Amino acid sequence: MIYLDNAASTQIHDDVFESMIPYMREQYGNPSSIHRRGRYARKAVELARKQIASLVNANSSEILLTSGGTESNNMALFGATINSPHSHIITSSIEHDAILEPCRILEDAGFDVTYLPVDRFGTVDISKLESSISEKTKLVSIMYANNEVGTIEPIFEIAKICREKNILFHSDAVQAVGKISLDVKKIPIDMLSISSHKLNGPKGVGALYIRKGTLLSPVIYGGGQERGLRSGTENVAGIVGFGKACDIARETIHHNLQNMKNLRDYMVTKITSEIPHTSLNGHPENRLPNNAHMTFLGVNGEDLIIKLDEYDIHASTGSACSVHTQKASHVLKSMGFSHEQITGSLRLTLGIFNDMKQVDEVVCVLKKVVAELRAVSPFREKYSFAENA
Ligand code: PLP
Q1: Is 321 a catalytic residue?
Q2: Which residue's C-alpha comes closest to atom 8 of ligand 1?
Q3: Is pLDDT above 50 for 321?
Q4: How many whole angstroms from its chain centre is CA 313?
Q5: Is 299 left (phi over 0), alpha (psi -120 to 50) or beta?
Q6: 19 lines ligand 1 (CB under 6 A)
Q7: Other CB atoms closer than 10 Å to residue 189's CB: what's the count?
Q8: CA-CA distance, 225 to 69, in Å (whole number)?
Q9: How many CB atoms lie within 10 A of CB 365?
C-alpha cells in the first residue's frame, strides 16, 4: 500500500498511539474531578497543551483545545464577530469549507463578507485586501496554506496590515502546522487553527491559538471548560496524542521538511519528464513541502484515482470534503483553470512515512494508467497522446 493522501489525513505515529492507551484504559478520570484520577487527567491535558503551544512558539495559556480544525475555524469566526452584528469580514475565495460555510451563515445573519480573489498560483491579492478594508471590518481570515494546491499565502504581510488597522486576523493553518516552521511570536497574528490528524495525531482533536488579550465569545455553552470558551469534558486521550504528535513534529520538522521537499521535487520532475502534457499547479516555490497538485490533460482525475486504487495507491483530486458535494473545485476555479484542467487534476501529498522507492513505483504505475486512460480519451487527437504516452 502506498498512501499519498496526507493532506486528507495522516497515519498515526506509533509513539502517539502508545501515549494515548493509558488514558483510554486506567486513567479515565474527568479532568474536572478533584480526586487523584481527575488530577492525573488534568495534568496530562495541561502537558499536552504545553506541547501544542511549543510547536508554534505560543504560551500554553493561549491554546484552546477543540474537536479539530473545523471547530477551531467556527470558533474563530463566530466567537470574534458574534458581538459585532452587521460588521464586515474579509476572507479568500479559496478557503476550506470550514471557513466558507460559517461565512455564508454569517452573511445570512446580516454580516458583510468579502471573498478576496487569487492569482493563477492561488496567492491572495494583497492590494485587494487593502482596498477592501473599511471602518466596519472586524475580522480577516486567510488560510496559511491551501489544502488543494499547497500554496502558502503571504501571511506575515496580511497580519501586518491587519495589525496596523487594528483588525483581528485569523489564519486556518491546518495544513501548515507540523509541515513548515511557524512562530506566532514573529507574526502579528491573533488566532490560528490547528488540527491533530494532519500531523500524525488522532482525529477529532485540534486547537485554536488565541493571542493573549484577544476578545472572543463562547460558541458552546455548558460546564465552563476551556476558560468558559468551549464547554464539554475534554477528550483526554485524544489531547494527549495530539500533544505527543506536536512534540514529535517539533523535534523532526527541519529534517522532515527537507526530506519531503526533496521527495516531492523528485516525484514532480519524474512525472513531468516521463508523462507528457502534465504540469504542477499552485505556486512553484511558496508551497507546502509535501504537496504535488498536478494536471494530467485528457484524463479524468477521478478515473485516475480509481485506477491507482487498484494498485493500492491512495491519492485524491483535492479536498476530501468536496467529495460530499460533487462540486468542481472552487479553488481551481478561482485560479482561473479551464474545465479540462480541473477535470484532469490529481493531488499527491506526501507524509513522513513515504520514501523514494514508493515514489518510483507510483510514477511507474501513473505512466501506465495515464496512457491507458488517454487511449480512450475524447481528447486523444488533440494532444496526440497515443504517440507520446
Ligand atoms: N481547514 C483545512 C485547510 C483543512 O484542510 C481541513 C481538513 O481537511 C480542515 C480545515 C478541517 O479540519 P478537521 O478535519 O480537523 O476538522
Answers
A1: yes
A2: 8
A3: no
A4: 22
A5: beta
A6: no
A7: 27
A8: 19
A9: 17
